[in-house]
TrEMBL record:
<dbReference type="Pfam" id="PF21671">
    <property type="entry name" value="CPL1-like"/>
</dbReference>
<dbReference type="InterPro" id="IPR038955">
    <property type="entry name" value="PriA/CPL1_fungi"/>
</dbReference>
<feature type="signal peptide">
    <location>
        <begin position="1"/>
        <end position="20"/>
    </location>
</feature>
<dbReference type="InterPro" id="IPR048661">
    <property type="entry name" value="CPL1-like"/>
</dbReference>
<keyword id="KW-0732">Signal</keyword>
<protein>
    <recommendedName>
        <fullName>Protein CPL1-like domain-containing protein</fullName>
    </recommendedName>
</protein>
<feature type="domain" description="Protein CPL1-like">
    <location>
        <begin position="232"/>
        <end position="298"/>
    </location>
</feature>
Length: 304
């Protein structure tokens, strides 16, 4: 059974077992497509989900997620999967044969009371927003110390609210329509990463205000090829394959001109990557396979 709840259903117990920055986020079906092309680590050195996460996080060319299965045992270094599977109980137990999935180098960890039926989100706080993924909540709340995520079967996504703190939680079984509380780890809050996030988010908000006159919020006005200087297309450059991370042909200027410098990448033109073997994820091209004579490294293809 696959569900938006699956990303969160197992976080209550196991998030506390992982070391800082390796956050447990759910269960992965053994038949997941994400496991088709993975790097399997030495099973003798990894006997637990947390040990697998630590081993994958230490890899110089890691892929961002680790998957551990007790049978074997088996530890895989994988990219962000598109499919997830629900846990078997509120404590976060994965079904026999399924993989325990960690998000590596995370700045967030489960709050002291992970699942709540009621809570108070202290100011400053955002309004509740509906987003398609848990990762989108992480990005939305990047400048806040705490957040609450509610998996919603009615919307097929997640509602999330960012806040200064989560107070007066009423503990509840982790399930759909229950609030999952997260807080930024103390180490992350004290790091330069968090302070840079504040600055970066302010820049993004300014850019969004400038772009909103041309496109809906979250979309970027990008120039399109041709001789018409007033032609542009609204794109989600976080996931647009041919304009990944920015406008490949340049951004249509907020003043009405089109002089902005091109910043995006056309993922379909990457050297050594076969057609259909690349995606744009969070503004970065990520390859899943390479042509003959190339090897896959850090989501790209390099000459063997």
């Amino acid at each position: 059974m696959r569900s938006s709840l699956s990303i969160l259903a197992t976080v209550l117990f196991l998030a506390g077992q992982a070391r800082a920055f390796n956050a447990y986020v759910g269960c992965l079906d053994i038949n997941s497509a994400a496991l088709d092309s993975t790097i399997i680590l030495n099973s003798a050195a990894v006997q637990s989900p947390a040990a697998c996460a630590d081993a994958c996080a230490a890899r110089p060319n890691g892929h961002g997620y680790s998957a551990f299965r007790a049978a074997g045992p088996s530890c895989a270094d994988i990219t962000s999967p598109a499919d997830w599977t629900i846990a078997t109980d509120s404590a976060g137990t994965c079904a026999a044969g399924d993989y325990s999935l960690y998000r590596l180098n995370s700045e967030w960890q489960s709050d002291s009371v992970a699942c709540n039926s009621e809570y108070a989100a202290t100011r400053p706080r955002t309004s509740v927003e509906i987003v398609p993924s848990l990762g989108e909540c992480f990005r939305l709340c990047v400048t806040y110390p705490a957040m609450v995520v509610v998996p919603s079967p009615r919307t097929g996504g997640f509602s999330c609210q960012c806040a200064q703190a989560i107070l007066d939680p009423v503990a509840a079984t982790c399930q759909q329509d229950t609030g999952f509380a997260y807080r930024r780890s103390a180490a992350a809050a004290a790091s330069g990463v968090y302070r840079r996030s504040l600055k970066d988010t302010a820049s993004r908000k300014l850019a969004a205000r400038q772009n909103h006159k041309y496109c809906p919020a979250s979309l970027q006005p990008c120039r399109i090829s041709g001789s018409n200087p007033d032609a542009y297309e609204c794109m989600d450059t976080q996931y647009e394959l041919e304009s990944c991370g920015g406008c490949a042909m340049g951004e249509f200027g907020s003043s009405g001109n089109s002089t902005a410098t091109a910043a995006g990448i056309d993922c379909t033109r990457l050297t050594g990557v076969p057609m259909g073997a690349v995606s744009c994820l969070e503004g970065k091209c990520v390859a899943y396979a390479c042509k003959k004579g190339f090897t896959l490294q850090s989501g790209g293809c390099v000459k063997a």
